[in-house]
Amino acid sequence: xxxxxxxxxxxxxxxxxxxxxxxxxxxxxxxxxxxxxxxxxxxxxxxxxxxxxxxxxxxxxxxxxxxxxxxxxxxxxxxxxxxxxxxxxxxxxxxxxxxxxxxxxxxxxxxxxxxxxxxxxxxxxxxxxxxxxxxxxxxxxxxxxxxxxxxxxxxxxxxxxxxxxxxxxxxxxxxxxxxxxxxxxxxxxxxxxxxxxxxxxxxxxxxxxxxxxxxxxxxxxxxxxxxxxxxxxxxxxxxxxxxxxxxxxxxxxxxxxxxxxxxxxxxxxxxxxxxxxxxxxxxxxxxxxxxxxxxxxxxxxxxxxxxxxxxxxxxxxxxxxxxxxxxxxxxxxxxxxxxxxxxxxxxxxxxxxxxxxxxxxxxxxxxxxx
Length: 370
Prior knowledge:
By secondary structure, the protein is α/β, with parallel strands linked by helices. The protein has helices spanning about 65-75, 75-80, 95-105, 115-120, 165-180, 200-210, 220-225, 255-260, 260-280, 280-295, 300-310, 320-335, 350-355, and strands spanning about 55-60, 85-90, 110, 130-135, 140-145, 160, 195, 215, 230-235, 245-250, 310-315.
């Protein structure tokens, strides 16, 4: 069970002392014989929405970004945007995507909760809005079963996370704290050695014996299992109803204000992509792999792709209460001070789209636009 939610006071985040909540999963892929999806996405044609030439969309080449991968691969975003061209851009980590959003290099992005929180608080609520959910789950603690038999065996071990302060790093630090194990959040030193390492490097380190385990998202978790690891804890078990946000959709506030019709069209594409994924899981899995190959040059083998895809649930719901709780975990871990999250969500357009699709509205946990 999680510890009680940490109160978030109404003061500016004093977060500059540490590289806070940075980064999510880097692009990764592994050799594969998985089935193909060779569909060529349609080009922009027809009327431009509001006269806008293009919309620049950021995402990671990563199974937890399945909505973006499928929507781009199958042309579902482009179909909604007509003559306004989709310009996709792949990122390896959250900070670079937030930097691109701030610089006006992208307009909309799929991203993890921690970099979204960090970007919002560092800009004092001026740079982005979370406008939709995208995925839940898909994170596990995978260990070397010869070295770690149970959750009581973590003390003295070396456990990796993708990056200091990223979503999985916060989750591990919070879990260790709840177990009574002390770790310095900035150095990773303590009762457990928390090793910050790029996702694409973790499998090799794990197989060499340099790591005893890793708290990682998909597909890295399934890659570790394929290399002899064992899932000791699926993070879903720590959350109410097994749901917690792993990927959100964010937008530049400037772009949202100037081009709400374009944002709405992208959200229609996102909602329809999620519906298509649920209705066509095998085809969706193939589409994810095809887009991963296009972006990284490599596919995932079936032994990695199948469990990774199964472990991630696409959703339109941003699961806002879990984002609030994740921010509380970062505060408790010493990675964040009193973030002001009021107004981080604007779900107006998403709920408009959901209503048109005869789907229920989603909530912002009191953190919506005032």
